[in-house]
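Exercise 7b. Backbone tokens:
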């Protein structure tokens, strides 16, 4: 008996975070324990290795799946690619009707009741943390414990890791030291998805970490929602990682209030090289709308960014912005200035457009009318062509947050273009923007507005080139705005160094 676990494609150019799909690895381990054979088909990797997939995705992917003699096909989703899982499973079920189609992941969990009604080819949706329900499905009576969540060498052996290392030379593996988050933000899937906030035993974490280098792993991303759920425990884990001396570096998600100076210092000493922090809400309006107030009474962003960089940790601070007609919309300008402060201090910054995920507090509170719209997927995200257009969103846009809009079309387009352009300007010219703000009160939004007006049709610019075009047009605008010699020297210096890595606008916090 065999189960095939499928990960849809969702990366196109930026492969810096491409790694084996941890959720499917966990389910493969469960399948092995239940006496099943398990195969992982990671189309997110294969998209970059197989030209036939890029030329004709569904035909090629279906052929690959049919070549595997399996009775269960399990599909995961990260929301933006859920339509690919639905369409591929529909075609699979039409050709092989006796097979069982199973869906899982945070997005399908959130819309499970609607999936059962709207998509009859789907047999099962596993809601929440799926290991236990998947085990019951494969072998009734099986109980899954913490030992079953350890990474299995047998599964790692069949992952074709050299392919991942070829596409992403960072040689990265996703990893968990715990699950859930102590915060309950209104816009986030996490509070409704995880049964409880918990940490995995440190000895288990260390045992697995000690063997990863044997598989060629050089970097680990701790993908739990908040590495610092328990700050005392996190410090102890860091102490133990220092003694482990595995040579493996790591990244994590961490919350702003928990990152004090001693924790940051220990994380750096333990091998942490990157932290992703969702600041998200800036100002009273946004804090109330998002149920998140990380900056209130806390260490200034500049101080925190400096502490992280001095510890050898590259910080990325993410901020949520909303269209003006949304209750959080009036906080747009204040949020941009906070992002500018973070960028000047040396952090990477993300301006993430608010997406209303089904099942979240922000979604339930919303009285907006959803309309199908693929603009966000087209211009804000690094997606393969097959992920940009979602035919299922045409009839049920409220189920697909990255292929719909909740405000009028003109406002949505203006909001997205402005958000993307400001993101590019903040990345390339933070010191120049800060000087203009200080000397003449010019807001980055005004610079972005002029930049957008200086190009006829942004839709004509190929996706791979749009950031470069925004950078160059933005430079010309700033050159006109800069009056003093100091401002112009700063601008020219920033332009010369603006080739570096820029995070995509839709960052890891979308989940």
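Sequence design result:
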């Amino acid at each position: 008996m065999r189960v095939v676990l499928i990960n849809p494609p969702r990366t196109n150019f930026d492969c810096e975070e491409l790694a084996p799909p941890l959720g499917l690895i966990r389910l493969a381990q469960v399948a092995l324990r239940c006496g099943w054979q398990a195969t992982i088909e990671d189309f997110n990797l294969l998209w970059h290795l197989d030209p036939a997939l890029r030329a004709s995705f569904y035909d090629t992917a279906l052929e690959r799946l049919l070549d595997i003699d399996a009775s269960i096909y399990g599909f995961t989703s990260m929301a933006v690619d859920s339509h690919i899982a639905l369409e591929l499973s529909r075609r699979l079920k039409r050709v092989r009707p006796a097979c069982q189609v199973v869906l899982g992941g945070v997005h399908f969990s959130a819309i499970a009741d609607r999936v059962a009604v709207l998509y009859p080819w789907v047999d099962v949706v596993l809601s929440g943390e799926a290991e236990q329900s998947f085990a019951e499905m494969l072998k009734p009576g099986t109980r899954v414990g913490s030992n079953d969540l350890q990474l299995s060498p047998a599964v790692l052996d069949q992952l074709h890791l050299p392919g991942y290392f070829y596409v992403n030379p960072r040689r990265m593996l996703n990893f968990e030291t715990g699950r859930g988050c102590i915060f309950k933000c209104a816009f986030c899937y996490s509070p409704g998805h995880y049964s409880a906030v918990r940490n995995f035993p440190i000895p288990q974490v260390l045992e697995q970490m000690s063997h990863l280098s044997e598989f060629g792993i050089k970097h680990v991303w701790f993908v739990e929602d908040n590495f610092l759920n328990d700050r005392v425990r996190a410090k102890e884990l860091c102490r133990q990682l220092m003694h482990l001396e595995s040579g493996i570096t790591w990244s994590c998600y961490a919350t702003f209030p928990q990152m004090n100076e001693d924790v940051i210092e220990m994380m750096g000493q333990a091998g942490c090289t990157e932290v992703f922090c969702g600041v998200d809400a800036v100002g009273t309006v946004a804090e109330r709308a998002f149920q998140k107030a990380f900056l209130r009474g806390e260490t200034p962003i500049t101080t925190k960014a400096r502490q992280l960089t001095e510890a050898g940790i590259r910080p990325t601070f993410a901020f949520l912005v909303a269209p003006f007609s949304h209750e959080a919309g009036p906080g747009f300008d204040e949020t941009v200035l906070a992002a500018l402060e973070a960028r000047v201090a040396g952090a990477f910054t993300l301006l993430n457009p608010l997406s209303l995920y089904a099942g979240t507090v922000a979604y339930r509170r919303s009285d907006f009318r959803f309309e199908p719209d693929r603009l966000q997927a087209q211009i804000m995200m690094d997606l393969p062509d097959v992920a940009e257009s979602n035919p299922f969103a045409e009839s049920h846009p409220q189920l697909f947050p990255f292929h719909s809009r909740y405000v009028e079309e003109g406002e949505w387009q203006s909001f997205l273009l402005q958000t993307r352009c400001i993101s590019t300007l903040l990345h390339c010219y933070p010191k120049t923007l800060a000087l203009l703000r200080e000397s003449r009160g010019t807001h980055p939004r005004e610079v972005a507005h002029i930049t957008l007006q200086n190009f006829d049709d942004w839709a004509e610019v190929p996706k791979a080139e749009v950031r470069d075009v925004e950078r160059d047009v933005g430079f010309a605008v700033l050159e006109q705005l800069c009056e003093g010699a100091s401002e112009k020297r700063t601008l020219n210096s920033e332009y010369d160094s603006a080739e570096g890595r820029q995070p995509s606008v839709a960052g890891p916090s979308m989940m």
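Instructor comment: Residues 409-428 form the longest helix (20 residues). The chain has a mean pLDDT of 92.
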